[in-house]
Write a structure and sequence with these properties.
Blueprint: E1 3-5, E2 9-12, E3 25-27, H1 33-39, E4 55-59, H2 63-69, H3 74-95, E5 99-106, H4 114-137, E6 140-145, H5 153-165, E7 172-180, H6 182-198, H7 209-213, E8 226-229, E9 248-251, H8 261-273
Parallel strand pairs: 4-5, 4-8, 5-7, 6-7, 8-9
Antiparallel strand pairs: 1-2, 2-3
Helix pairs in contact: 2-3, 3-4, 4-5
The chain binds farnesyl diphosphate.
Length: about 290
């Protein structure tokens, strides 16, 4: 099945064999979530497979606001956020995007009420335990980046177990930034490099971008091509400061729990219209 989509409609353009007939326009508002997700199982035809980002990073914001809008406690927003994340992972796999990195807990998030921090730690642990088998079956490799030794011991064990159990998987590189701060990451890289210089292992002249990147938590990943922030705020919030130097930024008003495949599609459409020049100018057409 192939589906193209604009803001208000999906056009079925090939052999979709239910009672939905070829060429019918279906208004997004009139079909339920499950049907929407199903219709977008394949990469929408108007997206260029060759121009998809190889690595998408996401600041998942708006769980609290979503919960408030629905008269629910904040924790329910985080719970619902996990479902959104699972669906985005499936979508990246289905559409052929090989790496996804999400910001689950920042070094600044410790400043939230203890009840919420404890809930999030418990949620990460519970979700990891519950979803591990599916990650293995779906060939997803999960990694955590951040100051992991400061996390609760039981969560650290679950992280180590899941990272090890999925280390040979290759369908999707899924990275969770937990107790992560971009400045802290850069500082710890500087300290490690300084120690090597001090010990005479390397000289100052050997420090270049390539060497520096080897000391970042993300050393095994390519830089993100696209960074998405949900719920409208126009800031980076200490996320992947080094790595996003040339990433395209996409901010949507959609709250994280409502960021579905069609919202992701809109982000990719926007990304594919960008002119990525990396500081250079466009070569003149002859
Ligand atoms: C930001 O929304 C969201 C978070 C701080 C937590 C995000 C975590 C998840 C979605 C769970 C991920 C789970 C795993 C296992 C990786 P907010 O609370 O800042 O929302 P607000 O700005 O509307 O208050």
């Amino acid at each position: 099945m192939r589906a193209t989509l604009n803001e208000t409609s999906i056009v079925i353009s090939s052999n979709f064999t239910t009672d939905v007939q070829l060429g019918w326009k279906i208004h997004l508002a009139s079909i339920d979530m499950t049907a929407k997700q199903l219709l977008l199982r394949d990469l929408p035809a108007d997206l260029d497979r060759e121009l998809l980002p190889k690595h998408v990073a996401v600041i998942m914001d708006g769980n609290g606001r979503w919960a408030k809008q629905h008269g629910l406690p904040r924790m329910m927003g985080h719970r619902r956020g996990v479902d959104t994340l699972k669906e985005l992972m499936r979508c990246c796999k289905d559409w052929g995007i090989p790496a996804l990195t999400v910001y689950a807990f920042s070094t600044e998030n410790w400043g939230r009420p203890a009840e919420e921090v404890d809930f999030l730690m418990m949620l990460f642990e519970k979700v990891l335990r519950r979803e591990l088998q599916e990650l293995i079956e779906e060939s997803v490799r999960i990694r955590f980046v951040g100051n992991l030794p400061a996390l609760p011991d039981s969560l650290q064990s679950e992280i180590a177990h899941a990272s090890d159990a999925t280390r040979h998987n290759h369908a999707l590189n899924f990275t969770v930034a937990t107790n992560y701060g971009g400045r802290q990451e850069i500082l710890q890289a500087c300290r490690s490099i300084a120690a090597r210089v001090k010990s005479g292992d390397i000289s100052i002249d050997e420090i270049d971008e390539r060497l520096f990147e080897q000391y970042l938590y993300t050393r095994e990943l390519c830089d993100p091509d696209l960074i998405i922030r949900t719920s409208g705020e126009m800031r980076i919030s200490n996320f992947l400061l080094w790595q996003i130097a040339y990433a395209e930024l996409y901010v949507t008003e959609t709250l994280w729990p409502e960021f579905d495949r069609s919202a992701f599609y809109q982000a990719l459409v926007s990304y594919q219209k960008r002119d990525r020049r990396y500081g250079k100018i466009q070569p003149k057409k002859s």
